[in-house]
Structure formats: structure tokens, C-alpha cells
Design brief:
- By secondary structure, the protein is α+β, with helices and mostly antiparallel strands.
- It has one domain (4-82): Rossmann fold (3-Layer(aba) Sandwich).
- The protein is built from three helices and four strands.
- It has a two-stranded antiparallel ribbon. Strands 3-4 form a two-stranded parallel ribbon.
């Protein structure tokens, strides 16, 4: 499978985006390669979780995701505090 990696430069630091067929099945390996710690918490919105939660959950060490509603109005310090 062909995947495309895009490295994004943000003011908080760089991060990769990987796009391509079957990317969700690669998620556990991609997270392992990122040298993050072993605890992985998934934050999603309800629609993405409904559509892809089963595949995403395989990459998490937590039992349940943290679901945040769609929209810029939910990207607040209060939401960060809840997360």
C-alpha cells in the first residue's frame, strides 16, 4: 500500500500526517515508531468514533475514548481541562 507522509510545522512543534488506504491498520505501529510513551489516550469526535472507533481502539491502551463535539467552539481551555 502506498502512504503519503506530510510533516506539518506548527508553532507548538512539528507533527506528521499519514494519508493512504489502510492507514488505520498501521496506527499502532505508527504510534510505536513515534517514540511516545506506552499510555495512549484517544480523543475523537462522535462521528469519527462511530465510523472508525473499532479500528482506532486497537491503538489505544485506554478502554474508552474521550469524545469532543465537532466545531471550533469546543476547542477551549475548558475542553482541555476535561480531557
Amino acid at each position: 500500500m502506498t502512504h503519503t507522509r506530510i510533516d506539518v510545522e506548527a508553532h507548538t512543534g512539528p507533527y506528521p500526517i499519514v494519508i493512504g488506504p489502510g492507514t488505520l491498520t498501521m496506527l499502532p505501529r505508527l504510534l510505536d515508531q513515534s517514540a511516545l510513551g506506552p499510555r495512549r489516550v484517544i480523543i475523537s469526535n462522535p462521528l469519527v468514533w462511530q465510523l472508525h472507533g473499532k479500528a482506532i481502539k486497537k491503538a489505544s491502551t485506554e478502554r474508552e475514548p474521550i469524545l469532543v463535539p465537532d466545531g471550533e467552539r469546543f476547542k477551549t481551555t475548558a475542553t482541555v481541562g476535561r480531557v
